[in-house]
Amino acid sequence: MERDKRNQTLKRIASISIFILLIVLVVIISNITDKKFDYIVDESKLQIIYFDVGQADSTLIMNNGKTTLIDGGNDSDGDDLVKYIKSQKISKIDTVIATHLHADHIGGLDDIIDNFDIGTVYMPDTINTDKQVEEFLDAMERKNLNY
User: Fold this and answer.
1) What is the pLDDT of residue 100?
2) Where would I find the H helices in 2-146?
3) Is residue 147 part of a domain?
4) CB contact burial 88-97 (16+ within 10 A = b; e otherwise)
5) What is the domain-level CATH number for residue 107?
6) Residue range of the domain that includes 17
7) What residue spans of 33-130 are helical by DSSP H?
8) Per the domain annotation, does 46 fall within a domain?
9) Which residues have C-beta within 8 Å of that of residue 138, sequence separation ≥ 6?
10) Tell me: the pLDDT tens digits for 100-127?
11) Which of 37, 58, 60, 71 could, after both became Cys, cross-link 105 (CB 3.0–4.6 A)?
12) What is the count of structural domains for the chain?
């Protein structure tokens, strides 16, 4: 029983790590599209911050002046995320990714959208009627954002 739980945890960590790596690669590639292919990423400029939002998820990636936020934790995490990101002197989030429309992934994203300039939003093309989903979509509508 304990072994199964540990294996599940390790599998989840591995899956999340692979997902984050893929996102980092997308961010890096998007930053070099107008540059030569011999471009070398300055690793001192890459930062990945995993926010402690309990069982929820939220990750901020900063690379070469571009920012990507993956998920926004629960509704109660929004204010803390906004405060931290503002403390980093960030005023624009170039890419917001909502991995799926569950409250523990998009709950705080309405606060993010309301407080920052947002470039592009990626999210699945499925809608449910959760209160947090409605708040997220309302915030996108207020800023005239498409996904």
Assistant:
1) 82
2) 2-32, 78-87, 103-106, 109-115, 131-142
3) no
4) eebeebbbbb
5) 3.60.15.10
6) 2-142
7) 78-87, 103-106, 109-115
8) yes
9) 110
10) 888 788 888 999 999 999 999 998 877 7
11) 71
12) 1
